[in-house]
Amino acid sequence: MEISPVQTERENFTKKMAETNPLSMRMGSWKITVYDQENFQGKRMEFSSSCQNIMECGFDNIRSLKVECGAWIGYEHTSFCGQQFVLEKGEYPRWEAWSGSNAYHVERMMSFRPICGANHKESKLMVFEKENFIGRKWDMCDDYPSLQAMGWFNNEVGSMKVTSGAWVCYQYPGYRGYQYILECDHHGGEYKHWREWGSHAQTFQVQSIRRIQQ
């Protein structure tokens, strides 16, 4: 059977897309199960894509969850606003499991979405002393539980560029405090000011950074 030029062109395009962005071609790359009660009890629902408002699914809140595939980001409020929570593969029986130790403690998660650009092995990040990518620069490709202990000169970061993968930055050393998820496919990977880290960000303070596990 002859293959038409149109079919050949379509197959070549599909192959090229798979090579340049494998995640875009994989079905079932993300799966999360959420529950309206702690310890995986009560109403449950599975998702493989973003949820902008869990109340539209008949939930008043998410009180426990299981990440079965892919990395996700949860939000305190609907429409992907408020405090951010990185959700990697595993079980989260109560809100403390995802909220972090020194964050503004809120027992609420109302929206979530996949972190499509997460690539733990190939993650690269540039941090800058001042906003708009000015001042001293540091290239990162590993996890840093304390930036100051590894040579960064203060407890603040002015701006950041994510050239590949996705990262979670923390307000305090030891991966504690507010979480800011930075992705190569958001803002073009460029975060010129702390206001772009998230709607809950209020300061340049960042003291630990790690790659997100996919």
Automatic annotation (TrEMBL):
UniProt KW keywords: Eye lens protein, Repeat
PROSITE patterns the record matches: CRYSTALLIN_BETA_GAMMA
Keyword Repeat: yes
Highest taxon of source: Eukaryota
A GO MF label: structural constituent of eye lens
Residues covered by the Beta/gamma crystallin 'Greek key' domain: 30-69, 70-116, 123-164
Xref: PANTHER family: BETA-CRYSTALLIN A3 (PTHR11818:SF8), BETA/GAMMA CRYSTALLIN (PTHR11818)
Biological function: Crystallins are the dominant structural components of the vertebrate eye lens.
Stated family: Belongs to the beta/gamma-crystallin family.
Subunit structure: Homo/heterodimer, or complexes of higher-order. The structure of beta-crystallin oligomers seems to be stabilized through interactions between the N-terminal arms.
Annotated protein name in UniProt: Beta/gamma crystallin 'Greek key' domain-containing protein
Organism ancestry: Eukaryota, Metazoa, Chordata, Craniata, Vertebrata
